[in-house]
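debug: dumping io for the single-chain case to check the tokenizer round-trip. Nothing else runs in this session.
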Amino acid sequence: MDTTKDGQLQIELKEEVAEGVYANLAIIAHSSSEFVTDFVRMMPGVAKAQVKSRIIMTPEHAKRLLFALQDNILRYESQFGEIKLPEQRPTGYPNMGGFKGEA
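debug: decoded output
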């Protein structure tokens, strides 16, 4: 791990990663040792959705991510207002063979 003299972590963000990848579905699976999150892009009228990125992390890091997302959502909503979710869940999720969660 590369740190500066004051102990701060140095993080490199490469240009191709900085552009980001759009996803409108996350599918989450887990085992006793890891959480796997597939970020998927579903397009209207297209029967086949594409996994755009897969992130694998330990259960401890998954829980840290949960807390970080909760904190950021609370701060976002205090600044911009409540994020409203549609009452009806979208249908047509792809069968991903054994995945146990979605977000």
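debug: round-trip ok. DSSP finds two helices and four strands in the chain.
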